[in-house]
Amino acid sequence: xxxxxxxxxxxxxxxxxxxxxxxxxxxxxxxxxxxxxxxxxxxxxxxxxxxxxxxxxxxxxxxxxxxxxxxxxxxxxxxxxxxxxxxxxxxxxxxxxxxxxxxxxxxxxxxxxxxxxxxxxxxxxxxxxxxxxxxxxxxxxxxxxxxxxxxxxxxxxxxxxxxxxxxxxxxxxxxxxxxxxxxxxxxxxxxxxxxxxxxxxxxxxxxxxxxxxxxxxxxxxxxxxxxxxxxxxxxxxxxxxxxxxxxxxxxxxxxxxxxxxxxxxxxxxxxxxxxxxxxxxxxxxxxxxxxxxxxxxxxxxxxxxxxxxxxxxxxxxxxxxxxxxxxxxxxxxxxxxxxxxxxxxxxxxxxxxxxxxxxxxxxxxxxxxxxxxxxxxxxxxxxxxxxxxxxxxxxxxxxxxxxxxxxxxxxxxxxxxxxxxxxxxxxxxxxxxxxxxxxxxxxxxxxxxxxxxxxxxxxxxxxxxxxxxxxxxxxxxxxxxxxxxxxxxxxxxxxxxxxxxxxxxxxxxxxxxxxxxxxxxxxxxxxxxxxxxxxxxxxxxxxxxxxxxxxxxxxxxxxxxxxxxxxxxxxxxxxxxxxxxxxxxxxxxxxxxxxxxxxxxxxxxxxxxxxxxxxxxxxxxxxxxxxxxxxxxxxxxxxxxxxxxxxxxxxxxxxxxxxxxxxxxxxxxxxxxxxxxxxxxxxxxxxxxxxxxxxxxxxxxxxxxxxxxxxxxxxxxxxxxxxxxxxxxxxxxxxxxxxxxxxxxxxxxxxxxxxxxxxxxxxxxxxxxxxxxxxxxxxxxxxxxxxxxxxxxxxxxxxxxxxxxxxxxxxxxxxxxxxxxxxxxxxxxxxxxxxxxxxxxxxxxxxxxxxxxxxxxxxxxxxxxxxxxxxxxxxxxxxxxxxxxxxxxxxxxxxxxxxxxxxxxxxxxxxxxxxxxxxxxxxxxxxxxxxxxxxxxxxxxxxxxxxxxxxxxxxxxxxxxxxxxxxxxxxxxxxxxxxxxxxxxxxxxxxxxxxxxxxxxxxxxxxxxxxxxxxxxxxxxxxxxxxxxxxxxxxxxxxxxxxxxxxxxxxxxxxxxxxxxxxxxxxxxxxxxxxxxxxxxxxxxxxxxxxxxxxxxxxxxxxxxxxxxxxxxxxxxxxxxxxxxxxxxxxxxxxxxxxxxxxxxxxxxxxxxxxxxxxxxxxxxxxxxxxxxxxxxxxxxxxxxxxxxxxxxxxxxxxxxxxxxxxxxxxxxxxxxxxxxxxxxxxxxxxxxxxxxxxxxxxxxxxxxxxxxxxxxxxxxxxxxxxxxxxxxxxxxxxxxxxxxxxxxxxxxxxxxxxxxxxxxxxxxxxxxx
Length: 1314
Fold this sequence. Notes:
InterPro entries: Nucleoporin_Nup133/Nup155_C (IPR007187), Nucleoporin_Nup133/Nup155_N (IPR014908), Nup133-like (IPR037624), WD40/YVTN_repeat-like_dom_sf (IPR015943). It comes from Rhodamnia argentea. The structure is a single chain. With 1314 residues, the protein is an alpha+beta fold. The protein contains 45 helices and 31 strands. The termini are far apart. The strands form eight sheets. Strands 20, 21, 22, 23 and 24 form a five-stranded antiparallel sheet that branches. It is elongated.
């Protein structure tokens, strides 16, 4: 990047020069090219050793010590067709400097290169063996320019766009999406000719559609029609344009939905024109849609730098990463020399200007402030939009002049703009908005503070790319063929220059390697002119980045003056990386001693020494079988210091199982996987890993790991599990291939060839994901990577979850979907079962399992298993009667096996969480939901299968039960193992096997009573009480616990157990149960359900409680009897109250009222009879109730005093002069007398202590001060009555007479008042 501009050679000079001066190629021999036979088909072009040495060999991929982390990584070579075309150019010694152009389409991952009169297109993500290259012939009249005697091939004159017909692609990061239908739009920069191929993947070769610019268009006049090549030849315009003519500098294209492979392309020119090309299968319509008129925008004086031409329009870019018109419109940006314009393209191809915003002006907050000291001119060069369409990055060059020295220099920067929050411009705006739409996302990021001054051709050849790793980095491509990665790191900008030796040619384009994970960036990918595709790992950018130097980073050095020492001071590296020159010489400048940043490489020198020692000791063991002193040596070397994946022993084990085979090549595809090479290699790995385990055991390292590093030892043994699993998976793949060859093994005739690819597709997905995540593997086959990366076997389940829609496509026939699902199910079950079996066979090798989670219990594995299980459930619902019952049975079998391994995975994960003391509630909920879903579906399918067999065989009931029993055997075991109580209950009920039910109840004793509790609950809900109580004979304790919340049955079970005292308490509580409590006492525990008991039922339960209490013969039986009798009397009082009060009977009905509510009801009624019943209720409650409700008792006495007219009684006694006998007779009929007799009389009955303890009858101290104190007696209550001053003597006489006399003997004896 940033090299001095290369001056264009004259026509005569180009005829004499064979090679460009800045790209020295290997001289070509006179008779033949190197590596080319004299006869036969030309061999692919072989790169020079300087480039070939940079390509990592297969056996060095896993040896980090031999790979320079700051170097780019070779991804893949050109297809053979491209190499042959390049060799042909050299062989024919074509005159002039042959310039090759190319590019990468990020949305489709397609790469294109133009050589001579052909454009080659291929998918760079495809492995070498399956790489399909499309070669399209460019029309001769467009590809050859010059005079009649000499033709010069200039391939840098084209702009190319890829148009996908497969739908909308969001910067394709999905490994399953490969474009199968693509169109190509090409536009000549100078002649403005347009070439359009509607479909490049069609079987039949078709001529492209072409359109040429008219003479009026080339003269600057807008046209709206189609022009032929003959017309251009007559006007002499093809290849010879006027000096003031503006060339195209940017091209974008998008498909038009549902239009029959029509697309629209937009191109902008340096002269300020925006053209639209409507490309169809038969014709291309061209139209000028925008013209940048003369702008008054000025950037000061251009002294010292002359612009050859003014480039008004710089770049185009879609706002959305989509490659088709989504919805009804699509927005695009246009970068001019001082602003950004946003346009809207409608489906009818009408274009409207939405808004524009100046980015170079007087306000620095809106972009770049002009006319600063030393600034002479500002050039926005290129524009890129992020995937979300919200962030815009602009590459800017600023021409400056030092005011002190007078020297001129160029400053390169990145301007990042984003949409302001809350601002929304309607897509159909007619008038352009002048509101500020964008704002700075970050300050202007300076890439190069002082670079050499370039001419305008060099500046406007620069291109910008964004979106790769590290996050926020950008790539700047320059016209001299260099690429520089800019990354803001640790508060400063770092630059990494992609640089290869000269024989690699120039960098043609850069893009981002599609990531397999959503919302993740990929590594940068670079297309070179002669050395194929290269990737720049994130680690290389961070480790190899330098601070921006004050000179240009180019092949030819800088024109700025300065000493080497000054340059060295300016080049400050990240961390402790030694300084180096950012040029091609840096690769051989002895920088292998470069240190590694902390945080990027976590291995220390001690780790490397320990790993080397372990490898040496293990190799000695393989040769001699001896392990003398190995444990002590490794302990001294610190081999036991690290835990987990970084442990030395774990790394050694991983190296064994992940080694790439040296004899595997990329020149074979599926045939390689079909051979025995894979199986042999896997068996060799297994034998070596077993030897490694023997080494650990014999050297006592196993004991050390088991005691100190259990997790590390488990990982090592899990490598063995995965290796055994992938070997069995390989055998499964072999059987599928054999069945496909023989045409057997499929219930659907003719479908095996279509269905056999499911497992193969999954292998391809996993391998492709590994290749993209590890760019060192990009030149390897997907299958080779899959069968080599054994330690990453869980990636099978990740890809299965994420790509299930691709693996089992709903667009396929149902029979094919079922077969593909079967293959995936078999693969998953095979892997997990093999791992479990390996663990079972070698269980004595494993460390104590407490708190350790097996790899097949991790979330990624569980989610993958659930994904294919959900697919099987969906297929079960889709299966109709036209599908044979054998297919349904096979689906049932596969789903049953999947359910078993999935639930085992959940059980292991939950157990580990419990042992570690972690929260497991969320995991338990997920486990229960998925378990119930699977078991319920399996049960329903089992019933349907049994019914279908019965119908087919027309058998009797006995045979039907036998069929059902055979089908349910395995499901019964799974449900029993994982507490699927509903399924167990359903099977036993359908079989009508009470004995089986009892056996399962004995075996399944989980929390809360286990299966027995579930059975009790089901029987109770179904009101099968006889069966429920009968189970109590064999499960007495379990049923007793269950019936604690069901008192209506609990007492029966207690009577059966001869627990009469408990039965009495249960019956007593049942009789008085009401909304959470007893009438007399509070009950503990869960209350019984609402039984809607009538008062007669409650009386019956109380009587039964008395009988049980008598039968129990407990020491406290007498107290129980009294309490029961008291509650019976309260029930009787409620019945009497309801008989006396019709309103109460209607409102209360059979509801049992608490004593307090019943007393309040009596007081509310105002009836003398009911008030007296309130005193009776108080009498039969407990003393604690009377104390707690003392205020309510006082209210009863007040109401009793109000029932008689004491004023009239006093007046009558005074006027008539009552005798003692007459007074006694009259007072005997008052309510106070009767209440006193019931509460304090000689015949008064109460439960526990009497009323005297709560509320005494008389107030002993009659001093006035007592009246101010709280009421403490019946007398004090009466003293507050309004008639007490006059009739107080009669009131007190009434309560005194009532307390000493009954209603019978009240006439005998003297008056108490006397």
